[in-house]
Design goal:
With 297 residues, the chain is α+β, with helices and mostly antiparallel strands. It has 2 domains: 191 residues, no CATH class; 81 residues, no CATH class. Helix content is 72%, strand content 8%.
Length: 297
């Protein structure tokens, strides 16, 4: 790492003062990194959410048996359970209890009068991944023994949501790339401004025998430290926002929103962004300074 950022002596570093909090570039990079981390966190969170939703719901169907006659409803529910036990590709079958159904409808209908309402029989069915292509045959077998059955394919109603999440994920990636490009352009402008500011010092260094590589090393080290300083400031601010939003989302108690979370690997990627930004800034500064010095000579 020291070789990459440039190994310079204390005397060499005094030629270009390194007041990292004084100039505007560290704070511009901090703003860019703040936005970049937020966009990356959104993309990673949406990616994790899509995987979580797919794993939980994509290979599941729910069978509803809606009949006003409780005896007919119960008989058809037993027939469906028996038929599902004979079908291939069924990973699991679970009858939803009456208390669970009451808990599902109580927020919408209230507790009063629920006992007088005919509640449908609900059966959750977990499919093996290979069985989802035969969903029509499974549905036909179910309706064959229970004409009042209604089959809800979770993957079908989940498809528009996963498509939206996928689009937002690519949008987040585009924003990260745009922030990366903006950071590189900022470094190029800062390197050119620094060259103009220290033009007299550069001329003296050339007269004393300094090479373009040695001069570029001084500039790239200074800009790399500025980029690291601004990058970690932006990361700290964005991390606070992400954690605060995570707490607010968690307090809602929604399983759908709760799946929009960052796994530990995603946090590792976010923490690495300032380091990647510093490497990018160093490369951009080195190329900019070397190209400018060749034109000077």
């Amino acid at each position: 790492m020291s070789r990459f950022f440039g190994r310079t002596s204390a005397a060499d570093r005094r030629l270009l003062p390194e007041g990292r909090a004084a100039g505007p570039m560290p704070w511009v990079i901090a703003i860019m990194m703040f936005l970049m981390v937020l966009a990356a966190a959104a993309g990673l969170g949406l990616r994790h959410s899509a995987r979580s939703l797919t794993a939980k719901l994509a290979d599941r169907i729910t069978v509803q048996i809606i009949d006003a006659n409780a005896e007919v409803r119960e008989a058809q529910a037993r027939s469906v359970m028996a038929e599902l036990g004979r079908l291939a590709g069924i990973a699991g079958v679970r009858r939803v209890g009456g208390q669970e159904i009451r808990a599902l409808v109580a927020p919408w209908l209230g507790e009063t009068g629920l006992d007088e309402l005919p509640m449908p029989a609900l059966i959750d069915v977990d499919l093996q991944p290979s069985a989802h292509s035969r969903i029509d045959a499974i549905s036909a077998a179910i309706t064959g023994v229970a004409p009042a059955a209604r089959i809800d394919d979770h993957a079908q109603w989940l498809a528009p949501l996963t498509g939206l999440i996928g689009s937002l994920k690519w949008l987040a990636l585009a924003l990260v790339l745009m922030m990366t490009a903006a950071t590189a352009f900022t470094v190029v402008l800062a390197a050119r401004a620094a060259l103009n500011t220290h033009r007299a010092t550069i001329d003296v260094m050339h007269l004393l025998g300094a090479t373009d590589i040695q001069i570029a090393t001084l500039f790239q080290r200074r800009i790399a430290l500025d980029a690291l300083f601004g990058g970690f400031i932006g990361l700290a601010g964005a991390a606070m926002v992400v954690l605060l939003l995570g707490q607010r989302i968690g307090s809602l108690g929604s399983e759908l929103l709760g799946s929009v979370a960052l796994p530990p690997a995603a946090w590792g990627i976010l923490i690495s962004l300032p380091l990647i930004g510093a490497l990018l800034a160093t490369f951009a500064a080195r190329l900019t300074v070397l190209n400018a010095l060749r034109r000077i000579l």
